[in-house]
Amino acid sequence: MKRNFLFIPIVLFLLSCSEKKQEADIPNEPAEENMVVLTPEQYKNAGIDTGSLMQKSISSLLKVSGKIDVPPQSLVSVSVPMGGYLKHSNLLPGMHVNKGDVLAVLEDVQYIQLQQDYLTLKAQLALNKNEYNRQKELNESKASSDKVYEQAKANYESQLIAAKAAEEKLRLIGINPNTLTADNISKSIRIYAPISGYVSAVNVNIGKYVNPNDVLFELINPDDIHLALSVFEKDVDKLFIGQKLVAYTNTHPEKRYDCDIILISRNLSEQNAVEVHCHFDRYDKSLLPGMFMNAEIELNAQNATVLPSDAVVRYGNKQYVFISKGNYAFEMIEVATGSEEEAYTAVSIPDQLANQSFVIKGAYNLLMALKNKSED
């Protein structure tokens, strides 16, 4: 009897092991929620077509961002050396001006005083010059003392220095001393454009008093305006001078601007990024310094495993493709996608699935059928 009792546990143990072995031998079947089976009629209506993975040379796209920048020599702040009241200006932001154009007219009594001082000094200088020449001749003939001659010389040179200083002050406020006479003394001065470009800012209005340290206008020379992009260190070696890219703003992403890379910085920021400077092929006056932009840089083409872009569907922020399992059955698997070019998308597929038949048309219809199945 005891032998029979011992035999029963052994048999049960062997049966248990056999069941586990059989379970282990069963191949892993796809999860039920990722499978969809169609009827022949559904299959026909879905317009499904299958194909294999392909190898194709496809360019990768590097997406970066940055902002519009202007070098110091191309961004000019216009101010007046001497304060005054703004009498006239018709500038508006966005207007184009040429170098030498009149930007504004200012008035102040000090302008009159400066012109008066210069003409008075100029008249006195002529008198001192004649006296200096007379004393020089007298000194050479011993008709006057050296002291008198030296005093005349000092008076003349002091007057000459004062006149030259007043002359430069007039030039500083835009008045030509060579054409200034007592008959054309003016209470106003003109502010001229130092460069050709666009008006980016107007900070004054008619009748306002401006101080010497006030910025009246800001001008931009569009020839040197550029886009400064921030590129991470790991991507810098993929870029080169002259490389083409396309930039666009967040507000108008449909409007694209062609650019060329003109400078790649060698200094790393705290975020392990370098600054890449790009020149616009064609300037748009709506692009202002400090404006943020996105950019897409097309890198050199590389061989990649691809599927038609219609084969890839998005669901729940993930990318999926469908594999044909036969008998109108399809399995949805998650994939990692890369660059897209000419209606083909680079995909990362496990090696064990590389020889499978993939749905290249009608994938979206399969996704809808799978979603409807999960909702039932």
Automatic annotation (TrEMBL):
It holds the Pfam family BSH_CzcB. Residues 114-171 form the CzcB-like alpha-helical hairpin domain. It comes from the Bacteria. Keywords: Transport. Residues 76-219 form the CzcB-like barrel-sandwich hybrid domain. InterPro entries: BSH_CzcB-like (IPR058647), HH_CzcB-like (IPR058648), MFP_Cation_Efflux (IPR051909), RND_pump_MFP (IPR006143). PROSITE patterns: PROKAR_LIPOPROTEIN. PANTHER family: CATION EFFLUX SYSTEM PROTEIN CUSB, SLR6042 PROTEIN. Belongs to the membrane fusion protein (MFP) (TC 8.A.1) family. This is Cobalt-zinc-cadmium resistance protein CzcB. It comes from Mycovorax composti.
